[in-house]
Design a protein that fits this description.
This protein is α+β, with helices and mostly antiparallel strands. It has helices at residues 2-13, 235-253, 293-302, 318-336, 338-358, 378-395, 397-411, 418-429, 434-440, and strands at residues 27-37, 45-55, 62-66, 76-82, 86-89, 92-96, 106-116, 121-125, 131-135, 156-165, 169-172, 175-181, 186-197, 204-207, 209-217, 221-228, 262-267, 273-274, 279-283, 309-311, 414-416, 448-456, 461-468, 477-483, 486-492, 496-502, 510-512, 521-527. Helix content is 25%, strand content 35%. Bound molecules: zinc ion.
């Protein structure tokens, strides 16, 4: 009963509501410039942020940024000055807009600060015991060291101008502008990204790196490998062939890459990888593990989905993670063939079924997400991926890929919602898809099927009885059935249905979903009367 009530609420609510982050109407940040000074003597950083804002409404009186206040344990950021009157408390930095804004006006604000980051930028030793600095802003930890609108809805371009002891190399987003030896044992390194990204994708890594510059992918995307100097011999071979193949495949099948370069960076303090735009961080341990195909393809796919097309709202985080997961499988289908692809789908389906036993309430789309600890779970990755797979079957390969290309083109370097994606796929396929999106994304669980088949020798028919035994309304479920070597299609729409298929003789086998296209749990399906 309780679950059904929840289900109805989800059906009604899902399109309209947003996560609970406080948006600022009339404020659109265009560009952040961060000047940072790092030192070996202390974990305290010094910073200066310039925030370039375009106001889209009259009478905006305040610009509020997320910025961690000083904490009881001596961490957090202390603001020492700003170009306008300000207050900084409860992790919000409020800058006065004086006089109030005029619509269309552009203004710059500057803030100076220092402190030991309580998160976001981690200062530690790497696996070789050497001091390193690596940021990890996902999902909303930029605020611990960078004053920003720390939510994906307001994307902006950015640049980092980092002064650090000169034994280090500094990697960040975008293109290298300059490196200047300051003559006092320090070097200034300046990187600039020209495309807008959400806060979590801003990154710096500072370590004693070995840097390998590979030939540009398709002659246009510089490809770099940044590993600790001890790993010089294994780094390029681990990253470059897969990254090159993935950049080529995604570039050709989705649309042009959006950034100035791609650096693959070995980082301490990261598990798996983080898809920072143009500077992906991989766990320093990952490069000892072979093969890295799935991980590298996933983070590379994010450069298109998550980074360039970004969810407008945390409720729609599947537009990043579900997409990166399915596009990893598509890369495997392209590079290793159908069998490897199907193995990946089957593993993914099994993960979904297992996770739904322990968390039957998990859905792909959140409703009013207010706890950022809950922002992702395996259902969002795997069921999000499976939703795309079923959409591909429903639309057919050509229309699916045309829709993906159109979605990317329309929302490249911008934000999109689930409804935006649905609209593009409806326009491309020419059919309404509300029913499909509603039954897979905001609804927990998967269809559970029980049934049997029998052969009628008089009528030369295979008869199939199927029942959907899950809670809630029946799914509309296009399905394939294998009758011997033949594959037939039909559609389930009701809780209980019977189908008949012509067959000259009794088939040796009848199988549901022989092509691995349906996210279903088959509880029981056998020849009637058989055990
Ligand atoms: Zn991911």
């Amino acid at each position: 009963m309780y679950r059904r009530l929840v289900l109805l609420a989800l059906f009604c609510a899902y399109a309209a509501l947003a996560d609970t982050y406080p948006r600022q109407p009339g404020v659109n940040v265009q560009h952040y410039t961060f000047r940072l000074t790092l030192s070996d003597a202390t974990n305290e950083i010094e910073g200066e942020a310039s925030i370039d804002v375009r106001f889209t409404e009259d009478q905006v009186k305040e610009l509020a940024l997320d910025f961690t206040s000083p904490t009881a344990d001596g961490k957090g950021m202390t603001v020492t000055s700003a170009s306008v009157p300000y207050t900084h408390k409860d992790n919000r930095l409020r800058l006065a807009v004086e006089p109030p804004s005029k619509s269309g006006e552009r203004r710059q604000f500057t803030v100076r600060y220092h402190g030991i980051p309580a998160g976001g930028l981690r200062i530690m030793t790497n696996k070789y015991g050497e001091r390193v600095f690596f940021s990890e802003n996902w999902p909303n930890n930029a605020r611990h060291w960078l004053p920003m609108i720390d939510h994906p809805y307001d994307k902006a371009s950015s640049e980092f101008i980092v002064t650090a002891p000169s034994q280090y190399q500094v990697i960040a987003n975008g293109a290298l502008q300059e490196q200047i030896d300051l003559g006092d044992g320090r070097r200034l390194t300046h990187w600039k990204l020209s495309s807008p990204i959400p806060s979590w994708l801003n990154a710096i890594g500072v370590a004693q790196f070995d840097v390998h510059y590979a030939p540009a992918v398709k002659g246009i995307i510089p490809l770099q490998t940044w590993v600790f100097h001890q790993d010089q011999a294994i780094g390029p071979a681990w990253f470059e062939p897969t990254a090159r193949a993935a950049l080529e495949f995604f570039g050709e099948s989705i649309g042009p890459y959006s950034y100035e370069k791609l650096a693959n960076v070995a980082a301490a303090g990261v598990s798996g990888g983080t898809e920072h735009a143009s500077a992906i961080f991989y766990s320093e341990k990952a490069i000892l593990q072979h093969p890295g195909t799935g991980l590298i393809a996933h983070e590379t796919a994010h450069q298109w989905f998550g980074d360039s097309v970004t969810e407008k709202d945390w409720n729609d985080v599947w537009l990043s993670e579900g997409f990166a997961t399915y596009f990893t499988l598509l890369f495997i289908e392209h590079s290793e063939g159908r069998d490897a692809f199907v193995r990946g789908l089957e593993q993914s389906r099994q993960q979904i079924l297992t996770l739904q036993k322990s968390h039957p309430e998990y859905t792909v789309v959140h409703q009013n997400l207010d706890d950022m600890k809950q922002v992702t779970n395996a259902i969002i990755y795997q069921k999000g991926s499976w939703t795309l797979h079923m959409l591909r079957k429903l639309m057919g390969d050509d229309k699916f890929w045309a829709g993906i290309r159109e979605y990317y083109q329309r929302y490249r370097n911008a934000n999109a919602s689930t409804a935006d994606f649905r609209k593009v796929m409806e326009e491309t396929s020419g059919v309404p898809l509300e029913w499909f999106f509603s039954q897979w994304l905001p609804r927990p669980g998967v269809p559970v099927l029980e049934g049997s088949w029998s052969y009628d020798p008089g009528a030369h028919q295979v008869r199939v009885e199927l029942e959907q035994t899950e809670d809630g309304p029946a799914y509309r479920l296009p399905l394939e059935i294998g009758i011997g070597d033949e594959v037939k299609s039909f559609e389930l729409r009701e809780k209980k249905q019977t189908f008949a298929f012509p067959s000259g003789q009794e088939p040796s086998t009848v199988t549901l979903d022989p092509g691995t296209w349906a996210l279903i749990r088959v509880e029981k399906f056998a020849k009637a009367g058989a055990n």
